[in-house]
Amino acid sequence: MEMREVTVVTGSFAGFQLLFSVASPLFSRLFVPGYRRLPPAKHTEWNSRFVSTIHALIVGLFCLYILWFDDAVNADPVWGDPGLVKLNVAITCGYLLYDLVLLARNWATMGDSFFVCHHFAALYAYGYVLTQGVLPYFANFRLISELSTPFVNQRWFFEALSYPRTDRQVVANGVAMAVVFFLVRIAVMPPYYSRVVSTFGTPAFERLGLGPQVAWISSCICLDVLNTVWMYKIARGCYRVLTGAQGKKAKGASSNQLNHHDGAHGNSHRD
Fold first, then answer.
1. How far is CA 238 from CA 63, 261, 266, in A?
2. CA-to-CA distance for 153 and 159, rounded, in angstroms?
3. How would you class 100 by CB atoms within 10 Å of its CB: exposed for 0-12, middle for 13-18, buried for 19 or more?
4. Confidence category of residue 109, pLDDT binned at 50, 70, 90
5. Is 104 exposed, middle or buried (0-12, 13-18, 19+ CB in 10 A)?
6. Cβ(121)–Cβ(223) below 8 Å
7. Rg of the chain on CA atoms, in Å
């Protein structure tokens, strides 16, 4: 790994830690009145999700830029010039290391074995990108999945602030979350794996060697199994939100309470 990537990983780790410790508490206290009423454990996860959203927006948008404008990577997905991709991957690796440390320190309240598996699988594969500069197109393509993260985090924010499931903002975010998650994590699987298969047996693929080949394919399968499990849970939660909202409207109509405001805050439940 070159010094530039080491610096970016280190800076990313430190920067996200500062966002968690300083920026999120300050911003949230100033602009989100409900933040002050949350218990300490909720503050920790709130700040963690604030950082997660910032990371997702940075690397997700950077990923789209590379996919659209980096001709070298698009022309040679296995050995194309990895300069920009390595920067994006280094930012993500710094974030993943920060998040693993955070999970370890707060395992009792935030521990999640799925996320640990996800992070280690990603670090394992991205390590080859940073050290050998291989598979830049595929490494970058995986980062498009981060564009669903802000919606997932927003759902948690609504829940922490006790928005009811039937609140219009909650319903709209839930539908958007399910749609975007499907588009960037599930619908992209066929074109992604089609591009993967098209490299099999080529000189570029053989040049990789067994280590990168195994890391690439195994991590993809592991991540996509997790994505499929999460998609099922999100779809089930979205269905409950939609049917709950429809049920509430039907009940309100039968009771001649057509002026009921769906945005009233009440107790919320995890989808």
1. 27, 21, 19
2. 10
3. middle
4. confident
5. exposed
6. yes
7. 21
Contact 148, 55 (CB under 8 A): no
- What's the pLDDT tens digit per position in 113-127? 878 887 888 898 898
Q: What single-letter amino acid sits at 107?
A: W
User: Which tokens hold the place of 136?
Assistant: 């830049």
Instruction: Assess contact for 121 and 112: CB atoms under 8 A.
Output: no
Q: What is the DSSP string of 236-267?
A: HHHHHHHHHHHHHHHHHHHTT-TT--TT----
Cβ contacts of 21 within 8 Å, gap of 6 or more: 47
CB atoms within 10 A of CB 164: 20
CA-to-CA separations, 267 to 147, 163, 166, 247, 250, in angstroms, rounded: 28, 7, 11, 17, 20
Tokens at residue 195, please?
A: 């591009």
Q: Are 43 and 25 in contact (CB under 8 A)?
A: yes
Q: How far apart are the first and last CA of the chain?
A: 42
- Name the band, by pLDDT with cuts 50, 70 and 90, for residue 181: very high
Distance (Å) of CA 27 to CA 30, 117, 184: 5, 31, 29
pLDDT of residue 257: 36
User: Identity (one letter) of the amino acid at 17?
Assistant: Q
Nearest-angstrom CA–CA distance, 150 and 23: 17
